[in-house]
Write a structure and sequence with these properties.
Distance between the termini: 34 Å
Shape: globular
Oligomer: single chain
Order of helices and strands: HHHHHHHHHHHHHH
Helix content: 55-70%
Low-confidence stretches: 21-30, 37-41, 45-54, 278-285
Number of strands: 0
Number of helices: 14
Radius of gyration: 24 Å
Number of domains: 2
Mean pLDDT: 77
Structural class: mainly alpha
């Protein structure tokens, strides 16, 4: 016998009320959308528990790992492009890449102004080691009380990036640009370390925002901020003549792979024991 529509509605309302109580009475519209599949599949409320952390913190809309995981061709292409750029930078002094790099460097040199120089000098500092290490320490301190694994990840991202950068630069050993550089820059040129440092650190910034705020628009704002900082640092290094365009391009491919590996570490060890999010409860299978 078919259940009357009003009785089905009452049953749904009771289940939603039970679900709200089960999840601590903190459901908002975004949570309802995220948990719609549970309601649709009629999962008994007693089997539903709050995830170890908020859905936005545990399952953000986008990460480097999830992006590559669902796009194997893009992942292989990213690896291929990074390796090809490295090989071309090594071969014959990077002569193939210089066909692109030299015209860009000359054009920039001819169009510099005092205002643009001050502007890009400012953004270049966002990739300095002292800034990256300090920001990582501050974000880790802010994050530690709520999620120790994320705090540790932030510190590891900052600490392990310089050795990776050193190995890549020493292996490729490309000469720095010589077209009117704004200063003296030492060491190999490929890949660019500043954009890689900025992208590696600020690529974790959305995860920090998700831990402290539940708003998706704030999470997306953090994503745009991260991309913006990385892009401005890269542009600044090319503007200053510290790196070629292909150097900073390669740094983003390496940073994306690095972030995917970091996300794998985070997902592997991230659990309930060291995540004291306000909505923390033990998660069951």
């Amino acid at each position: 016998m078919t259940e009357p529509a009003d009785q089905r509605l009452d049953a749904d309302q009771r289940r939603n009320h039970t679900l709200r109580e089960q999840l601590g009475g903190r459901l908002d519209d975004e949570d309802r959308r995220d948990l719609a599949v549970l309601i649709r599949d009629e999962v008994p409320p007693e089997q539903i528990v709050r995830p170890a952390i908020s859905l936005l913190h545990r399952d953000p809309p986008l990460t480097a790992k999830s992006f590559f995981y669902h796009r194997k061709a893009v992942f292989l292409t990213t690896i291929s492009v990074a390796v090809i750029l490295a090989v071309l930078a090594v071969h014959d002094g990077g002569s193939v890449l210089l066909r692109v790099d030299r015209p860009v460097a000359r054009w920039i040199s001819e169009h510099r102004t005092e205002g643009w120089t001050d502007f890009f000098n400012f953004f270049s500092h966002f990739g300095d080691n002292i800034v990256v290490f300090s920001a990582a320490a501050l974000l880790a301190l802010w994050t530690w009380p709520r999620c120790r694994y994320l705090a540790i990840t932030l510190l590891l991202v900052a600490a392990l990036r310089p050795p990776l950068e050193f190995v890549l630069k020493a292996t490729i050993d490309r000469t720095r640009p010589i077209i009117d550089p704004l200063g003296e820059f030492h060491g190999p040129s490929h890949p660019s370390g500043h954009p890689m440092a900025a992208a590696s650190l600020w690529g974790q910034f959305p995860a920090v925002v998700a831990l402290h705020f539940r708003s998706r628009w704030m999470w997306w704002a953090a994503v745009f901020i991260a991309f913006g900082i990385g892009g401005m640092v890269a542009a600044a290094r090319v503007y200053k003549g510290a790196h070629y365009l292909t150097d900073v391009t390669a740094s983003f491919f390496w940073a994306a792979l690095y972030l995917a590996a970091v996300q794998g570490f985070f997902d592997r060890f991230h659990g309930t024991a060291n995540c004291q999010h306000p909505q923390h409860e033990v998660q069951t299978d």
